[in-house]
Design brief:
426 residues; D-Maltodextrin-Binding Protein, domain 2; five-stranded mixed β-sheet; 18 helices; globular; CmpA/NrtA family ABC transporter substrate-binding protein; transport
């Protein structure tokens, strides 16, 4: 039996586990998609944090989020790198293969961006008078003008790629479009494109833009085929991103293993946050076993140094990735409820108190606190008002109060009442 307690020191370093472990090494098979936001999972494997907790992580690179979902459900994976809405969707019974999934640990914040083809961006700049220094909202409004002109001339709707219907990318892309006055269900066509294929699809003209995680936005911009027009921080800085997903029955059957895993991931997240470790992290991520992208691009992504296009336009986003700081790993149920609100907004789910409770149950701060102690958790409520603090605003000024969720959804000028796609397409 594994006996463990954790204590926190005043220096802010990782919790110090005190354990008597008679289980021996435990092998966990973990699925992941090649993205920089898998850093914590990869660092835990490559730099000894899992081994220190008596765990071996067998990382399996997959090609799509639907595959990851199914392989976790069918017990081919013990844990998985997942989109933050995936456990919520699973607990709501949404999708083609819903299987109960929870998360006790978020893998950080940041990493997403929206990229349009250079052709589309040049049209926005020339026809809508868009300056090079335009904000994310300015870019959305300029796109709205171009789309209106295209409709008037009878041109086909542009096609934009998202990585999965129940994804932060889908909801953030839709949020950005709607903030500019664009109806994602009527004014554009959204399709599913796996993350590593987004840059190639843009280059081939199969899509006109996409929302995806790093490094694929910068890969497209440096190839000269795309222009980055918005980052995740522009839409909502605290928006949840990737999480560690697991089956609730597995978590209940392996409580000591879950706690050891959380301690290992917490230590890895702290390590990933330190700039002095980014060269080593970038080298590990660039390996063909993981992301298989140029190490220089990954290093700049970790630093938040954006090449917006191939013309030399650049932007630095402070804390573009937050792997640990600001309680970025805490699985906050109000984040799950915000995700649920977007599912309602875009016709994926209905308003229901029981569904709200099911959505919140996907995020398990109790397991996080059991592993790391209350001293390493935030001292505010697990369900709180989101987007109301300075520096953490939504781009359109809305504030999310979970206690008034139906009113929040009703308050948007652009919303849908119809399902838009099946996750069988992912």
């Amino acid at each position: 039996m594994d006996m463990m307690t954790t204590t926190s020191n005043s220096g802010g370093d990782m919790p110090s586990p005190v354990r008597v472990n008679n289980e021996g090494p435990k092998v966990l098979r973990a699925g992941f998609i090649p993205l920089v936001d898998a850093s914590v999972l990869i660092a835990a494997t490559e730099f000894g944090f899992a081994r220190k907790e008596g765990l071996t992580l067998d990382l399996v690179k997959d090609v799509s989020w639907a595959n990851v979902r199914d392989r976790l459900a069918f017990r081919q994976f013990d844990i998985a790198h997942m989109l933050s809405p995936m456990p919520v969707a699973s607990m709501l019974g949404l999708g083609s293969n819903p299987s109960p999934t929870i998360t006790p640990f978020s893998l950080g914040r940041g990493g997403n961006a929206i990229t349009l083809s250079t052709r589309f961006f040049d049209r926005m700049r020339n026809d809508a008078g868009l300056p090079e220094t335009a904000s994310a909202l300015d870019n959305a409004r300029a796109l709205a003008k171009i789309l209106a002109a295209m409709k008037a001339r009878g041109e086909p709707l542009p096609t934009f790629g998202v990585t999965y219907p129940f994804s932060s990318h889908n909801y953030e892309f839709r949020y950005w479009l709607a903030a500019g006055g664009i109806d994602p269900d009527k004014d554009v066509r959204l399709v599913v494109v796996p993350p590593p294929m987004t840059s190639d699809a843009l280059a081939a003209g199969a899509i006109d833009g996409f929302c995806v995680g790093a490094p694929w936005n910068m890969v497209a911009s440096e190839r000269g085929v795309g222009r980055i027009v918005a980052a995740k921080q522009d839409i909502w800085p605290s928006a949840p991103e990737k999480v560690i997903g697991m089956r609730p029955d597995w978590a209940e059957s392996h409580p000591e293993t879950v706690s050891r895993l959380i301690v290992a991931l917490d230590a890895a997240a702290r390590w990933c946050d330190r700039p002095e470790n980014h060269d080593a992290l970038a080298a590990a991520l660039a390996d063909p076993r993981y992301i298989a992208a140029p190490v220089e691009i990954i290093r700049r992504v970790l630093a938040g140094e954006f090449s917006l296009d191939a013309k030399g336009n650049r932007r630095i986003i402070t804390d573009y990735f937050m792997f640990h700081s600001g309680f970025a790993n805490y699985p906050r149920p109000s984040h799950a409820l915000w995700i649920y609100s977007q599912m309602i907004r875009w016709g994926q789910a209905e308003v229901s108190l029981n569904m709200a409770r099911a959505a919140a149950s996907a995020y398990r701060p109790d397991l996080y606190r059991t592993a790391l102690g209350d001293g390493n958790a935030p001292d505010d409520a697990d369900i709180r008002i989101e987007g109301g603090d300075e520096g953490d605003r939504f781009m359109d000024g809305h504030v999310f109060d979970p206690a008034r969720l139906p009113d929040y959804v009703a308050g948007f000028a652009v919303k849908s009442a119809l399902p838009f796609m099946s996750d069988d397409e992912a």
